[in-house]
Design brief:
By secondary structure, this protein is α+β, with helices and mostly antiparallel strands. The chain folds into two domains: 76 residues, no CATH class; 200 residues, Chalcone isomerase, CATH 3.50.70. It has nine helices and eleven strands. It has a seven-stranded antiparallel beta sheet with strand order 5-6-7-8-9-10-11. Strands 1-2 form a two-stranded antiparallel ribbon. The longest helix is centred in the first third of the chain and has 27 residues. One of its GO terms (cellular component) is chloroplast stroma. Pfam families: Chalcone_2.
Length: 287
């Protein structure tokens, strides 16, 4: 990685005299030259101490900075490229979600998970984004649904069942916005919410599966505000969980994958508006 220093140029005030304009222009030239020298120094200073001394002498004769000179900035280049990932911001919490995860998992909708406290107050626990693999959707659903309009697919129960039951790679990305949330609270919440879905779709005899899932969220993990939990359905219905990019476990279970996704896009979702957005975007991708 090479670190370059160069001036960010701002338009000067209109009432500056010509002399000041000339001085500013000269400063730009000096700054640009300094940037070149910095690169040379950082690359070769171990091999050529004379170059380091020459650079120090150059700096000692540079004029002091003032408000009329360009401001200095810093840019780090890795592999000769700089990229800026597009993101969508949840308006209430400010949580930011990349529009693409990995290669082709597209953001379909964002929402909020709220929790009622003593029936008196709703707390924003985390913001979430739902992603799905664009190629999987087209390959598995396009032939069946390409002749239907988006409005016809929204609320279509068969379409929902196909999304849930097919081996489509999907991710629910949770970003913690409540600063006092503990991993134990997350574990308890999943026991309740996912436990009810496991019972709904698979009957009462799924306590072992639920325990295997919740036990991945060990007390050693800390989840301060801004932490990211991802629950992903990978190929062959493997549910993979990560916290801040670190994998904490995976379980192969079609029932568990369905139960997790149902919390966000099922009949009784955490955020109905988010579900509607996900449905509409899934329908668009499937056609």
């Amino acid at each position: 990685m090479v670190s370059l220093r160069f001036p960010f140029l701002f338009s000067p005030p209109t009432n500056l005299k010509a002399l000041n304009n000339v001085s500013s222009s000269a400063a730009v030239v000096i700054a640009a030259a300094a940037g070149v020298v910095v690169v040379g120094i950082q690359t070769h200073q171990r091999e050529d101490p004379f170059l380091q001394k020459a650079f120090n002498l150059f700096l000692s004769h540079c004029p002091p900075t003032n408000s009329n000179l360009p401001m200095w900035g810093s840019l780090s280049l890795a592999d000769n490229s700089v990229t800026e990932e597009a993101a969508v911001v949840e308006s209430k919490t400010g949580a930011s979600f990349p529009t693409v995860l990995g290669v082709s998992r597209r953001l379909l909708g964002i929402g909020l998970r709220k929790k009622s406290v003593l029936g008196l107050k709703n707390i924003d626990v985390y913001a979430f984004g739902v992603y799905a693999d664009e190629a999987n959707i087209k390959n598995m659903l396009n032939e069946k649904y390409d002749k239907l309009s988006v409005s016809e697919l929204k609320g279509n129960k068969q379409f929902y069942e196909d999304v849930i039951n097919n081996d489509i790679s999907m991710t629910v990305r949770l970003q913690i916005v409540y600063g006092r949330l503990s991993i134990g609270s997350v574990r308890s919440a999943f026991e309740e919410s996912i436990g009810s879905r496991l019972q709904k779709f698979g009957g009462a005899d799924n306590k072992e599966l639920l325990q295997r899932f919740t036990s991945m969220f060990k007390d050693e993990y800390k989840i301060p505000r801004g932490s990211v939990i991802e629950l992903s359905r990978e190929p062959k219905h493997v549910l993979r969980a990560t916290i801040d990019g670190k994998e904490i476990g995976s379980i192969q279970s079609k029932l568990l994958c369905r139960s997790v996704l149902d919390l966000y896009i099922g009949e009784d979702p955490f955020d109905k508006r988010a579900k509607e957005d996900v449905e509409a975007n899934l329908a668009s991708l499937a056609r």
